[in-house]
Amino acid sequence: MSTGTNQSQQPSATQPSGMDPVLLLVLGVVFVLVLAATLYLCLVHPSLTGPIGAVGGVASALIAAFAVAFALRRR
């Protein structure tokens, strides 16, 4: 009699196994648009290539640090 009540009282906790596909799609589109805008600026204004490269290098390091911190926090 107690085995039936124990099974019915346990809630089924399902954890989401990843990110939302719509969020991934939006992030992908934004990433492609930023890359396209950067390429356009570098091609049209060659004098901006140095500053854009510097900002891109710093931004990529910051994104990598945030990604590692976020991955460690989710564990």
Question: Keyphrases for this structure?
Answer:
75 residues, mainly alpha
Outline the structure in words.
With 75 residues, the chain is an all-alpha fold. The chain has one domain. The chain has three helices and no strands. The longest helix has 26 residues. It is elongated.
Secondary structure blueprint with pairings:
Blueprint: H1 2-9, H2 21-44, H3 49-74
SS-derived structural category:
mainly alpha
Query: What does the main sheet amount to?
Result: none
Residues in β-strands, percent: under 5%
Rg from C-alpha positions? 23 Å
Overall mean pLDDT score?
77
Q: Report helical residue fraction.
A: over 70%
In short:
The chain has 75 residues and is an all-alpha fold.
